[in-house]
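Long-time lurker, first post. I've been practising inverse folding by hand and with some scripts of my own, and I keep getting stuck on stretches where the structure tokens seem ambiguous. Below is the full token string for one chain I'm working on. Before anyone asks, I'm not after the true native sequence, just a reasonable design that respects the backbone. If someone could post their per-position residues I'd love to compare against what I wrote down in my notebook.
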């Protein structure tokens, strides 16, 4: 199955109740988000957690990898020696990383607190499995993230990538490193980037990053590069002068897997049958949806419905997957031997809501439908290069064949995006 879940989490030991002794309640948003994200990991049936920590042994060039059969650690240095942990390492993943990742530096030693804090919460949620411990790369995090994702996706198990890191340590005068205006600026750039355009996170000014005094920037960039997803920031706060963010970066969904199954079956002249996934309720609702095919990062087909035409979402996805692969007039029909080169996403649309004007739009949150007479144009939200309401409405008008100066009726809708 490969990589099914990717998250970014903070690692302050004070979040652990046995260490915080009540102080952790000042970080309630982080605690709630940590528990939610840990529960999601358990429900994803993850067998192995690959953990990236900025407090593991680091190397200027390359990336460190713990090669012990069993790794152990405790919170003794934080006054909680009774919290002791041991985990088996995933020998298969270790072997593949040593074989296929360049610049591997083998290490041994106890689990650092950057890894222990996430493992504490994940284990508390009921997870038991194997681990792989990596140090945060100081150079080329995107390169390592991409390769890790590619390597893991070739393996048969179910894997999660947990990127550990705190954001700025310079949010308050009484914080660990005092205050610098770069601290809150950096943190807000990270949060906003995840909510809008993750590509902008790779090119933050070096001076801003250094002044912010962060320790998780490279962990985050590595995790984002491992697998494309629809990031969700569950919480952000900085009560002690350090930025704590919990974010769901990517999780596998059965919806695009069903779209792939349907299109592949059609191209191979097979009967697609009926969807049979654990959470069948996802397929039972009636919603409009778009199915998008990409090849080497470039659009290869996209067809959708703004309102449901089929009796359930499963059939809506099936219809639009076949249309995206064979009826998009912008592209030649997809061939069966191309399927392994395609990535597939499914955008499920919420209810259309008529609005009075453009002030009610946000190109990052809402899609837009413009109508004038029989002409209708639609544009999905959160599209690369569409940063303003004016651009969003203009493109939707162009798609409908409506002149820029012509007035239109406006509808908005929210979209939930699902990745394989």
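-- Answer (accepted) --
I ran through it position by position. Result:
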């Amino acid at each position: 199955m490969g990589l099914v879940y990717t998250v970014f989490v903070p690692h302050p030991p004070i979040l652990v109740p046995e260490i915080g002794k009540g102080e952790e309640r000042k970080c309630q948003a982080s605690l709630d988000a940590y528990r939610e994200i840990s529960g999601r990991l358990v429900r994803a049936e993850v067998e192995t957690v690959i953990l990236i920590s900025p407090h593991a042994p680091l190397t200027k060039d390359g990336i460190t990898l713990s090669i012990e059969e069993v790794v152990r650690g405790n919170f003794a240095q934080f006054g909680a020696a009774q919290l002791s942990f041991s985990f088996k390492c995933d020998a298969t993943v270790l072997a593949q990383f040593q074989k296929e990742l360049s610049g591997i530096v083998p290490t041994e030693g106890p689990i650092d607190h950057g890894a222990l804090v996430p493992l504490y919460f994940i284990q508390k949620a009921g997870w038991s499995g194997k681990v792989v411990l990596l140090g945060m790369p100081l150079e080329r995090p995107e390169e390592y993230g991409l390769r890790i994702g590619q390597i893991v996706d070739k393996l048969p198990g179910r894997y999660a990538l947990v990127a550990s890191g705190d954001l700025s340590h310079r949010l308050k005068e009484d914080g660990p490193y005092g205050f610098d205006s770069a601290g809150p600026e950096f943190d807000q750039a990270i949060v906003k980037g995840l909510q809008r355009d993750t590509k902008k996170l790779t090119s933050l000014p070096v001076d801003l990053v250094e002044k912010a005094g962060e320790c998780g920037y490279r962990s985050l960039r590595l995790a984002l590069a491992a697998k494309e997803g629809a990031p969700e920031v569950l919480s952000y706060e900085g009560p002690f002068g350090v930025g704590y963010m919990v974010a769901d970066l990517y999780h596998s969904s059965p919806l695009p897997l069903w779209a792939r199954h349907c299109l592949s079956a059609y191209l191979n002249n097979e009967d697609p049958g009926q969807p049979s996934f654990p959470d069948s309720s996802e397929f039972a609702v009636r919603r409009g949806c778009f199915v998008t095919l990409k090849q080497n990062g470039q659009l290869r087909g996209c067809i959708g419905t703004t309102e449901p035409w089929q009796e359930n979402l499963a059939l809506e996805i099936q219809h639009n997957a076949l249309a995206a692969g064979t009826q998009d007039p912008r592209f030649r029909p997809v061939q069966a031997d191309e399927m392994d080169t395609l990535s597939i996403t499914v955008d499920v649309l919420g209810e259309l809501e008529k609005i009075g004007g453009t002030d009610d739009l946000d190109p990052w949150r809402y899609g837009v439908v413009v109508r004038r007479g029989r002409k209708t144009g639609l544009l999905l939200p959160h599209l690369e290069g569409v940063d303003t309401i004016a651009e969003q409405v203009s493109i939707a008008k162009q798609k409908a064949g409506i002149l820029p100066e012509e007035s239109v009726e406006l509808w908005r809708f929210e979209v939930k995006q699902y990745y394989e």
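A couple of notes from the structure itself: The radius of gyration is 23 Å. The chain has a mean pLDDT of 93. Happy to go over any region you disagree with.
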